[in-house]
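Entry type: protein chain
Record version: 2
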Amino acid sequence: MRKPLNFVISSGGTAVPVDDVRILTNRSKGTTGAAIAEVALLRGHKVDYVHAENARLPFGRELMADPEVDIETELQRIRSAIENYRAISDRLTLSPVTDFDHYQRSLLERVARPDMDIAILAMAASDYGPQKVDGKIASDGNGLDLHLVALAKIISQVKTTREGIFLVGFKLLTEESSVVQLLAKATRSMERDRQDLAVANIVGVNFKPKQTFLLQPGQEVIEVSERRDLPDILLDQIERRVMQDA
């Protein structure tokens, strides 16, 4: 590796306010984004992790205690996890965002930085949202109708903000869709947003990925047979292309 790369990785699900109390969001927990950030950090890169407030954090699971395990064994494991975390913590920036608008501002500010090399948009950004109402909508009525409007495609703004950044996008369909449909939609999104690499997923119950593919312009599709291998395969492709162009 010639030099550490600077990554901005977004993760989790965005929240769109309905009023000052309620939000609309989605099922994303930020598992994939956290796993990708972990691999990038272990490879010596720098990561600015833009995440939903309730999203999983890099190495967060390792730093949590399991009450079912022998306490001395668990304390020893946590001590080791803390030492490992401290070894990478100076290369990790945690940047929580509260809602869709905050995410849009925060991400594009980082994309605009001339030293930012890679943008991986693993956050499940909301497609639709209501016009926010100030205060709290009364709960004593018989129902509530919400009119949802299309929100901005944040990923479509990345290359217009900074042409030279390496952009990785994600496309997700449910298990009722075919692989052919998934790859066709992922390809259209990749071309529309000028993504340098796209991760395409079919998910089943509880948002669990069932099939995963990597797409790159002008190259054959890569099928990721084991989901746990995605971060390493993705980083291999990014490093190969970015280092080659450097």
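Comment: Residues 71-88 form the longest helix (18 residues).
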